[in-house]
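[Automated response] Your request has been received and processed.

Submitted sequence:
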Amino acid sequence: MARWVSRAIAGSVCIMLGACAAAPRERPLPTSRVATGENTVEAARKQLEGRWALISLDIAAEDGRRATVQAAGDLTLDAFGNLEIVYRVSDAGLAALESLGIRSPNPTITTTGRAAIDTQQSRITYIAPDAGSRPFDPALAAARANPFALERERFYALDDKGVLTLTTRHDNGRDAATSRWRRV
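Generated structure:
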């Protein structure tokens, strides 16, 4: 009989515990406030978010030789920081690139990935997908001498007319690629 009573009590306790409704957490999680206002990552992302069309593309070799590259292009930045830049270079544009020692295997140059925005330096850096939140290695881009490489940091400026300028730089600090974009 004692066994039967203890089983009945244990069963009743299990039923009562299972029937208790979950309550919301009494205390809020310890977090910091999200920065808002001018010169924040959120404000910069909102300014740059959307689709942009290429206006012009200028390339400079490390030794200072320059060329304007005939190309069309699209730039897209979404709300999650995914950045895609596509250049469709004409035959004349490919010839201009080759005159500077830059060889493209095909006329479409694409850079795609997650991007981090540094508002203090007006810089956009692609984040390596397999490296968590580490940026790509800038030394690798220098070794490749490619102004379009993912490893190259992009410096941005947005003027009063709504034109976005993206610039990559050579290791010597000179501009490598300067592209101008208008919002679509």
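Summary generated for your ticket: The chain has one domain: 41-183. Residues 41-183 form a domain with the Lipocalin fold (CATH 2.40.128).
If you did not submit this request, please reply to this message.
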